[in-house]
Design brief:
By secondary structure, this protein is α/β, with parallel strands linked by helices. It is built from 24 helices and 29 strands. Strands 5-4-1-6-7-8-11-10-9 form a nine-stranded mixed beta sheet, sandwiched between helices. It binds GDP-alpha-D-glucose. It holds the Pfam family Trehalose_PPase.
């Protein structure tokens, strides 16, 4: 059934951690939500859903892990005016293996490209599965028809598929907050793990990542690990498709923009400025983590101090490291190293009255954080990998004075949007040192020009837009397509077929009569299907209508008295007759198009160009480069821009980009065939975009059948290619038994 945002009644959020605590109030203890961006985004999303007529409940249900302290809490306390909290409890050992083990010791380092920190432990994997199952149990007790379930992050990669299997009609979104790495990294995971993890997230209808790169990496892994067809941004499964897109997370711009003027922020800022006197301030804040590039940041700053003695006594790096995972050896080691380096730099360069680094290992209150965002001259953000990095966006949003300079690592997702920052590579300590100097001497006018651009971007792409864009993406999931009657009324269909005097069958080849395969030359119908086709061809006009060339079709259908249509309607061959050429356009467009395609063939090994008589196709099913899908889109765009004496059509098919003259199509040829006889039964079956021309040209009483998901002009749908085999075999039996 179709679903759109208008019909969702409730929002169910699932994340590893519940963003709530029980706080004392005048009326006794009450549930309080954290003030994070995700909580605000979700609130605004629910508000939007709640505005829809007929929607009675706007309370958001949030499922997440909670420590044992919530066990003793009265159920009534787990609810406030906006949220209902559903704590997930699990055995200590399971939690440890799931969270500390598989999530933080394997997925986190691996997906941030710290392969040597990754620990592969079978017991942890089993705990990860058990923990995801615990989340499923909690959800299962809660979920109702009409709910939208939104699952978050790498701790819950198995959950979307678990929910899909338990409740096949559920509407599920999944958002990945950390980088999705290249397939070379995914390949390090044992085969079964990588398969289960990718199948796990594919349980969702919409999958979101922060950047287009992560989307491409994911798509590449899907095609390597599961060999599933990908069409544009969709992964095609047997009975549905999954939409995969990038939705860059952001911040509540207004909140950060105005908070700098709040009284306590102003007074805290003044206090910091007094304490740090006339120094220029460089600020950084991050959780203690090896991905954040704190070591490189210190090396870059040290190099700056070495090379720029003029700045001694006039600048301070205020570096706050927020405690995190510090019971783990690796993190303790990192902390020790950071503190040693800070001590060494302060000892080497400092003097009485001047500390080059003001370091603290502590959490900041929101007021302190705002005071530092607005007091500093430079924000120095140097992760070695970061899914997005919200600190960068918060700093920019806080600077309503349009002053301050952002130095940002190119390895943070945020760098793809904040191009007016000073973009650096953190491992290049000279580049960091130079950027610090450039930032400190940058004229006010330039600071303001850069800030204005970045602020404008964040204002327009705030966290509310992020969640709304994600919500809107569900409007395009298969379930939300204009309703196609998915079930062919087989009984009346077979009766009409049996009773007809003149029968016409128009059937596509690839993905319809034969499954899609790696090497196009290998595609063939099964022997059973060939037999059925041969018997059908005796009492019906059977037309195979394809984009393939003449030779291939003749070979593939040899021995069956069918009519063949090759190259999308350019050629037609009736049984026992020679080929006729229907396309009469000149072919002087071929050479220039070939010269555009050739560099793509060279660049993507495994891909090849097929030059037909009236068309050229670039096939890339066997090319495995990360960016091949996006480059296929790029090629199609370039080809569409080519001007030629002959009007051309560019077709983006399944792992193929094809160019042909616009004058003929499967539709034009289907129509001319239909007009040659007084047919009283017509069925047309096809799976891809070129078959739509055929569906749209046929009389409206014809049976038009779309194979697989996707919007279509067809009246009916067959879920998968093998259903075509079944249907045609049944039709042949009907004729045989008459
Ligand atoms: C993951 C991904 C992605 C930090 N210290 C204090 C404090 N914070 C707040 C910041 C910011 C948030 O925590 C940190 O967000 P990040 O995006 O930088 O990083 P992760 O926590 O690693 O988050 C990341 C994010 O998910 C969202 O998808 O961007 O790439 O790793 O909001 O302000 N807040 C306060 N005191 C602190 O000391 N009050």
């Amino acid at each position: 059934m179709s679903k759109s945002k208008n019909t969702y009644t409730r929002l169910l959020i699932v994340s590893y951690r519940l963003p709530f605590s029980i706080q004392p109030t005048d009326d006794g203890p009450a549930l309080r939500q954290n003030s994070g961006g995700l909580v605000s985004a979700v609130l605004s999303m629910a508000e939007r859903m709640g505005q829809q007529p007929g929607n009675t409940s706007t309370k958001i249900h949030w499922v997440g892990h909670a420590d044992a302290s919530l066990r003793a809490v009265e159920p009534a306390l787990l609810e406030n005016e906006s949220f209902v909290a559903h704590p997930v409890f699990m055995e200590e050992a399971v939690h440890k293996g799931f969270y500390e083990g598989f999530s933080n010791d394997l997925l986190w380092p691996l997906f941030h490209y710290f392969t040597s920190y990754a620990s592969f432990n079978e017991r942890d994997f089993s705990h990860y599965q058990q923990a995801n199952t615990r989340f499923l149990e909690e959800l299962n007790a809660l979920i109702e028809p009409g709910d939208l379930v939104w699952i978050h992050d790498f701790q819950l990669m198995l959950l979307p598929d678990m929910v899909r299997k338990a409740i096949p009609s559920a509407t599920i979104g999944y958002f990945f907050h950390i980088p999705f790495p290249t397939y070379e990294i995914i390949k390090l995971l044992p085969r079964t793990w990588r398969q289960v993890l990718i199948e796990g997230v594919l349980g969702a209808d919409v999958i979101g990542f922060h950047t287009a790169d992560y989307v491409q990496h994911f798509m590449h892994s899907v095609s390597e690990v599961l060999a599933l067809p990908i069409i544009g941004h969709r992964i095609v499964l047997a009975d549905r498709s999954v939409s995969v897109r990038h939705f860059p997370i952001s911040v509540d711009f207004t909140k950060f923009n105005v908070s700098g003027q709040e009284t306590d922020v102003v007074s805290t800022r003044l206090r910091y400025q007094r304490l740090l006197r006339h120094n220029k301030l460089i600020f950084s804040v991050d959780r203690l983590d090896y991905t954040k590039g704190i070591r490189y940041r210190l090396q870059g700053y040290e190099r700056f101090l070495l090379q720029q003695p003029d700045w001694h006594g006039r600048v301070a790096l205020v570096m706050t490291v927020v405690p995190s995972r510090d019971k783990i050896g690796q993190y303790q080691e990192l902390k020790r190293e950071i503190e040693e380096t800070v001590g060494r730099i302060n000892g080497l360069f400092g003097s009485i009255g001047w500390r080059p680094i003001v370091y603290s290992y502590a959490s900041l209150t929101f007021t302190e954080l705002m005071a530092l965002y607005t007091a500093c001259d430079v924000a120095l953000i140097t992760p070695i990998r970061d899914g997005m990095n919200l600190v960068a966006k918060e700093f920019v949003a806080s600077r309503s004075d349009q002053a301050g300079v952002l130095i940002l690592s190119e390895l943070a997702g945020a760098a793809q949007e904040l191009q007016e920052a000073l973009i650096i590579n953190p491992t290049d300590t000279q580049e960091v040192a130079d950027a610090i100097e450039q930032a400190l001497i940058m004229p006010k006018q330039e600071q303001s020009a850069r800030m204005e651009q970045m602020r404008c971007h964040i204002q327009n792409h705030n966290v509310f837009r992020w969640s709304h864009d994600f919500l809107n993406a569900f409007d395009n999931v298969p379930g939300a397509e204009p309703d196609l009657e998915t079930n062919l009324p087989v009984g009346s269909f077979m009766t009409a077929f049996a009773e007809a005097r003149q029968r016409l069958l128009l059937v596509d080849f690839d993905g319809t009569l034969a499954p899609l395969v790696d090497n196009p030359a290998d595609a063939r119908p099964t022997d059973d299907l060939r037999q059925a086709l041969a018997s059908l061809a005796e009492r019906a006009d059977l037309v195979i209508i394809s984009g393939r060339n003449r030779t291939f079709l003749e070979q593939a259908m040899a021995g069956i008295p069918v009519c063949l249509v090759a190259e999308h309607g350019a050629f037609l061959k009736k049984p026992d007759q020679p080929w006729e050429r229907l396309d009469l356009s000149a072919d002087n467009w071929l050479a220039p198009v070939r010269s555009v395609i050739d560099p793509f063939v060279t660049r993507f090994s495994g891909s090849f160009a097929e030059e037909k008589e009236t068309a050229i196709a670039w096939h890339y099913r066997m090319a495995h480069a990360d960016d091949v899908e996006s480059q296929a889109v790029e090629l199609a765009n370039i080809l569409r821009g080519i001007t030629s004496a002959v009007p051309l059509t560019v077709i983006q098919g399944n792992k193929v980009v094809e160019v042909k003259p616009a004058q003929h199509s499967k539709g034009t040829v289907a129509l001319s065939i239909v007009e040659q006889n007084a047919y009283d039964f017509i069925v047309s079956i096809g799976d891809d975009a070129t078959d739509e021309d055929m569906f749209s040209q046929l009389p409206n009483w014809a049976y038009t059948l779309k194979v697989g998901p996707g919007t279509s002009f067809a009246r009916y749908r067959l879920a998968r290619q093998r259903d075509v085999d079944t249907l045609l075999q049944q039709m042949s039996e009907v004729l045989t038994n008459m």
